[in-house]
Amino acid sequence: MQTNLLSQQFSAGSLAENSTACPANATICDGTSCVLPEDNFNRTLSVVLSTVLTIMLALVMFSMGCNVEIKNFLGHVKRPWGIFVGFLCQFGIMPLTAFLLSLAFNVLPIQAVVVIIMGCCPGGTASNVIAYWVDGDMDLSISMTTCSTLFAMGMMPLCLFIYTKMWTDSSAIVLPYDSIGLSLVALIVPVSFGIFVNHKWPSKAKIILKVGSIVGAVLIVLIAVVGGILYKGSWSIPPKLWLIGTIFPAAGYTLGFFLARIAGLSWHRCRTVSLETGMQNSQLCTTIVQLSFTPEQLELMFTFPLVYSIFQLLFALLILGGYRLYRRYHVKTNTDVEKTAQKEDSKSSAEVNGGFVSDEMK
Fold it and tell me: Which residues, other chains included, contact 46 with Cβ-Cβ below 8 Å and sequence gap of 6+?
């Protein structure tokens, strides 16, 4: 029903004649890309890998929780200035940026909609791992990821209604609330166990955190590789979507950082908000796309979520590399000043969210 409605709404034109370069078993081929039917091997591989990756991700989030202190975490909840700034970035900056990029590159309506869907998705859990490696505020990172996933239940339909109505009826887009709910549970439960372990056995929590941070870094790369293997049948997409997939995450990181800085958050919180803004839940976007579009429409933009996830990872690694070089070669006194500011900030509940004046400006 939903896919038929979308078929009527998206009249992007007939597909070009099939190219002889496409495999004989391709279900769709327009000479630039092919969509292949899913065979039993790929289906089994997808189920096995999804199960393994889900378990690994839960363990990683458990280890990330081992770096969260109950006092600081509750401080962010009670005085949610940092969470509010992150909310503005997540559901203000990202959907608007997606809308403007779609207009600027004049993409097909169906392609514009999938770009906006990506912009409306909540933050991904990979941001928590990267935030740890760039010495971000883990209490803020975890609380932002949790809140953005929770708020997505209401904000995604609202943002899609606002930004997609010039191309389609937002009611034609299927939002998998069960997947969003499962993502929330998969985040809250392991993190809660990690917080408990850190509270009861802080020395053991540090060991778990070190191991989990390394496993998490490997897992992020593994997910990107697995995605490339599973979706190899639809790799060719228009150059415009490649450009959008490159610019979009970079804009998210940059705008998130500057908005956080303008709001007066300290440097380590600016890095945290930046990562939470640019790193989207691309798996959720893929699920929405598969539920909402026909195979003919999928051919036009199916791999955009994967393209976005690859470039968001590349830019995140560049941020991590740049920060590590800065920490290594910058004047030691300046680094110590930031560390001291973070420690003093965590001691005072009144400063838990940075306020309008950053720690470095005091």
Answer: 230
Q: What is the DSSP secondary-structure string of 47-89? A: HHHHHHHHHHHHHHHHHHHTT--HHHHHHHHHSTHHHHHHHHI
Q: Are 278 and 250 in contact (CB under 8 A)?
A: yes
Check if the beta carbon of residue 297 is closer than 8 Å to that of residue 10.
yes
State the helix-helix crossing angle for 177-200 and 40-65, rounded to 10 degrees.
40
DSSP, collapsed to helix, strand or coil, labels residue 1 as: coil
The model's confidence at residue 271, banded by pLDDT at 50, 70 and 90, is very high
The label of the residue with tokens 């896919």 reads 3
The number of CA neighbours under 13 Å toward the Cβ of 316 is 30
CB-side exposure of 13: number of CA atoms within 13 Å?
Answer: 7
For residues 217-225, average pLDDT = 69
Of the candidates 24, 242, 235, 295, the one whose C-alpha atom is nearest the C-alpha of residue 115 is 242
pTM score, whole prediction: 0.72
Helix (H, G, I), strand (E, B) or coil at 173: coil
* Residue in this structure with the two tokens 């909540």, named with its chain if needed: 122
| HSE (side-chain half, CA atoms, 13 Å) at 177 | 5
Bridge partners for 280 per DSSP: 123
Range of weakest confidence among 112-126, 143-157, 265-279, 320-334: 320-334
Amino acid found at 252: G
What mean pLDDT comes out for the span 238-242?
A: 84
